[in-house]
Amino acid sequence: MYTLRGTKLQVNEQEVFDILTGKISTTINRALLRAFSQEDLSITTEQWSVLSCLWKEDKVTQSELCDLTRKDKPSMTRLIDNLQRSKIVVRVPHATDRRINLIHLTQYGASLREKVNSVVQRVVDKALTDVSENEVAISRKVLNTIIKNLDS
Q: Which of the four, 36, 69, 96, 142, has the lowest number of CB atoms within 10 Å?
């Protein structure tokens, strides 16, 4: 058992292991990959995280995508290369700085938004079956606090 900051709250070793190994993340990723495959969507969850950012704001730098997705530069380069090979994004030279490429959705990449978001929503709905709105709000607050604590 681990005691947190001298409080009575205790976390057992299995819970710590599950958190550190990303058990929840892995389970969600598998469910999303299965759902994408069932809908003939040839994207990964990592590619979806990039697409999700681009659907909110197109034509951003690779560095901005790294910050938004919390991925390192080599991983992002690989993701963008694969998305480009699939004709989902293109690299567009920056208007004033040729050292910078902006990542831009193709028409095909933009057209995937509705279908992909529908698949993701179905997985989220299934994941949150029997979870109340209050529990989701509390979970969101706790997870954001953990991220903030570890980022500082």
A: 96
Is the CB of residue 119 less than 8 Å from the CB of residue 40?
A: no
Alpha-carbon distance of 28 to 15, in angstroms, equals 17
pTM, entire model: 0.80
Check if the beta carbon of residue 31 is closer than 8 Å to that of residue 126. yes
Host H or E run for residue 68 = helix 62-69
pLDDT tens digits for range 66-110: 999 999 999 999 999 999 999 999 999 988 888 889 999 999 999
- If you search the block for the tokens 């999303």, which residue do you land on? 32
